[in-house]
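Troubleshooting: if your tokenizer reports a length mismatch, compare your output against this known-good record of 324 residues.
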Amino acid sequence: MRRRSVRIGLTLLVTGLAIAYLVWKVDIHEIVDTLLDADPWWFALAVAIMIGTALPMALRWQWLMRAQLMEERFWWLTRAYFVSYSASQVLPTSIGGDAMRVFETAKRHPGRTADVTSIILLERGLGGAGTVLLGAIGFVLAIGTYDVSAYLWLEGAFVLGTLILIFLFFARSARPLLARTQPLLARFRIDRHMRAFYDGVHHYRGHVRLLIGVFVFTTAIQAVRVLSIWAAGKAVGIDLGPRIYYVMGPLFFLVLLVPFTLNGIAVREAFFVSFLGSVGVPADQAFASGFLFFLVTTALAVPGAGILLWEGFRGGSRPRLEHG
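Known-good structure output:
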């Protein structure tokens, strides 16, 4: 109960600070005018990019499942992705959506919950690693054109975190270090669960080609998704080329992985105002683009909500009993 209270308190604190920053920086009347004048065609392009990239992400998930000898239909995995987007609207950022995917997939593969969890979190980790690489490339592209050096520390933190996780999960020399955490994990009665999760991820050490292929594929998907942020900016009249968004976009996606607030409320808009402000975009326009991108992600949840309603009318989907 105490840990939950602390978590809620920190969430409210971060939300309050982000809102205070926005109140200080923006004019609500200017924002409303900017949104009312937004170009619907650029907005539609942003939505189409986000929805369209869900299909290759489902394919990536299917490849990782096959390596664990779990067969699943591509269209069901696509359905699960869209449903998870709907869940992430009311749960903490993308982590809530991942929990929904674990829950639904584990029902279809009884006894494989740890493997399902490891697959989904590995997929998320590879996505994060690809995004970090894309961000590093973006910073190289920005040299001599944009002054975004203040964000280098954030990019560096994500790079360091990614390298540490790769070492912990795939290096055999990390096992003695991890073994030292066993008494602490046993005290909380999660040692067996964590061991099963570690084994599920470490299993992919023998699938190097698959991991490299998924990593490259994921980086390409993220490169396309960044263009949805650029389109949201164009919709509210921000006259910047795609290059700067390849600096901003990857950092933005990484920041949203951390459950600071419910569905990234206020943090998302504060990031847009802060980053785009560093390259000369007025705060009101930057806020409007962030809010418009929120509407893009909300539109991404519509197919999943429709699927859930349809399945509710039909009596729900029956879980598979076989292991695949």
